[in-house]
Specification:
It is built from five helices and twelve strands. With 269 residues, the chain is α+β, with helices and mostly antiparallel strands. The N terminus is likely disordered.
């Protein structure tokens, strides 16, 4: 249409008087796609379209099934995106971890979980286990490995011991590491841990408060995990059997017996 307007009103007559092959050559970029479109419309109009002879209820059921499949695919994509985001938040060691589903929890004297999933046969005893979700923290170590499942002893299990230091928070300076106090963290059971090796005076001087973090500082664990979170301070009281020492109770960020999945550090530098 634009070419027609230019030819009729804007361009000189001699410029628009093309004949024979010159005119055909000029119109090729326009005529070919138009010809194909017109041919496709003609063929579709001439070809009888098959009629759906099924019952209306069958068609409605098929539409419902297709909608359900779309919803399931959308949910699966969202889950993959969430997992990709969580892997990106692992703090620099995501390349060394594999994710596994929690398939059971020990309801006896010990605090442990069973995990399974693709690649579980590659999991080895003593490999560190981390939580999933918004806050990535050390939650235990593999104590039994098999072809179908592996067992993880949680850091809250009675007698489980690691060492660490504190990350203290204040409104003025934010988070600050305090490596002067070396804490021995021991599992108590019932979702709790305790630190009872520090003098109460040192704890007060360090201005430790409820909500401060304890992070890993233990040479018996991989170097890449040093500084990873272990638990938050839940309470600070004088130790009952020795009041000069502090009784610091810790709690994980999540209930470790109710996790849906975890990360296992299957590779190291």
């Amino acid at each position: 249409m634009m070419l027609s307007l230019l030819s009729a009103f804007a361009l000189p007559r001699h410029a628009t008087e093309l004949h024979g092959s010159a005119l055909q050559t000029l119109l090729i970029p326009f005529s070919r796609p138009i010809y194909k479109i017109a041919g496709g419309i003609r063929d579709r109009a001439q070809t009888p379209q098959p009629q759906d002879t099924r019952d209306t209820r069958d068609i409605e059921q098929e539409n419902i099934a297709l909608k359900q499949q779309i919803q399931e695919m959308t949910a699966a994509i969202e889950e993959l995106q969430q997992r990709a985001g969580e892997r990106a938040s692992l703090g620099g060691f995501e390349a060394f971890c594999d994710r596994f589903e929690v398939v059971g929890a020990d309801t006896g004297l010990h605090e442990a979980i069973a995990i399974s999933g693709s690649g579980i046969e590659q999991v080895r005893v003593d490999e560190p286990v981390l939580s999933s979700g918004a806050v990535i923290a050390l939650i235990g170590r593999v104590v039994r490995a098999g072809d179908l499942t592996a067992q993880v002893r949680l850091i809250t299990d009675p007698g489980f011991t690691v060492t660490g230091h504190f990350v203290v928070y204040s409104q003025t300076s934010g988070a600050a590491e305090n490596k002067d106090l070396q804490a021995i963290i021991t599992g108590l059971g019932k979702g709790q841990m305790v630190i009872d090796n520090l003098p109460m005076e040192d704890v007060r001087h360090a201005n430790l408060q409820q909500g401060d973090w304890v992070v890993l500082d233990d040479e018996t664990w991989p170097r890449d995990l040093q500084g990873i979170r272990i638990g938050r301070i839940d309470s600070i009281e004088p130790l009952a059997r020795q009041s000069l020492f502090a009784d610091i109770r810790l709690a994980p960020e999540q209930n470790l017996m109710h996790l849906g999945d975890v990360w296992v550090m299957t590779h190291q530098r």
